[in-house]
Amino acid sequence: MKGFPDLPPLWWLGSIVVIYAVKWSLPGWHFASGLLTTLSWILCVAGLAVIFWAASWFLRKKTPIEPHHVPKTLIVEGPYHLSRNPIYLGLVLLTLATAVGQGSLVGLVVTAALWWVLDHRFAAVEEAQLAETFGPEAAAYLKATRRWI
Questions:
Q1: Three-class DSSP category at 72
Q2: What single string gives the DSSP state of each residue in 92-141?
Q3: Beta-strand runs (E) in the chain
Q4: Which of helix, strand or coil describes residue 104?
Q5: What is the pLDDT of residues 115-127, one digit of tens each?
Q6: Whole-angstrom distance, CA of residue 77 vs CA of residue 109
Q7: Beta carbons within 8 Å of 18's beta carbon, 6+ residues apart
Q8: What is the DSSP letter of 78?
Q9: What one-character DSSP code corresponds to residue 119?
Q10: pLDDT at position 3, please?
Q11: How far apart are CA 148 and CA 141, in angstroms?
Q12: Among 39, 51, 64, 115, which is 20 to 30 Å from 7 by CA?
């Protein structure tokens, strides 16, 4: 849709909507267990922690957090020392948490699809932008740090 904001949180929200829509329309395709609920909460807390930790570095460095904006600073500290895309990793963990918590096998497929979209539509494009903007410094970072984990 023209004019519709192409943002990772909206892709994430869409994935959550799909998981719940499938649960409501095909309730027999889901299973539940206390262990899955516990695992779901652990994944949820981990995902939120990673997102907030990573977002705090954008504030510290005073650089835009929104995709499709030219970064002012190359962030290589904090979670960016471990992963080039910790916010996207957090969104995938939140989707996985929802899939696991709902006992949704379809949700696992949705989680994989979200990962693919974030990887190809955003991460790869942003890394090219980093290389263009920061040159050899970005090249060294991209070589030294994994895209996901």
A1: coil
A2: HHHHHHHHHHTTBHHHHHHHHHHHHHIIIIIIHHHHHHHHHHHHHHHHHH
A3: none
A4: strand
A5: 999 999 999 999 9
A6: 32
A7: 106, 110
A8: G
A9: I
A10: 66
A11: 13
A12: 39
